[in-house]
Design goal:
With 65 residues, the chain is mostly beta strands. It has strands at 4-6, 12-21, 27-34, 49-53, 60-64. It has one domain (4-64). The protein is built from no helices and five strands. The strands form two sheets. It has a three-stranded antiparallel β-sheet with strand order 1-2-3, with no helix packed on it. A two-stranded antiparallel ribbon has the order 4-5.
């Protein structure tokens, strides 16, 4: 089951990750929230991160703890 977060507006978002290749050839893992469950969904928040909500849009984001 994907990790879900319901914001103050009542919209549910699901946590996902994707490994991307940077210009220098380095691989980096990015985390993002989406309104639906897709490939790459996570069951829990990664260690060392916490979920925050942006003031203006209410979109959840991950911040380092």
């Amino acid at each position: 089951m994907a990790f879900s977060y319901k914001n103050a507006k009542g919209v549910t978002y699901y946590l996902h990750f994707k490994d991307v290749n940077l210009r220098g050839g380095k691989m980096q893992r990015i985390y993002f929230f989406a309104r639906d469950v897709r490939a790459g969904s996570l069951d829990a928040v990664p260690a060392g991160y916490k979920v925050m909500e942006t003031q203006r849009t209410g979109m959840p984001v991950l911040k380092k703890a």
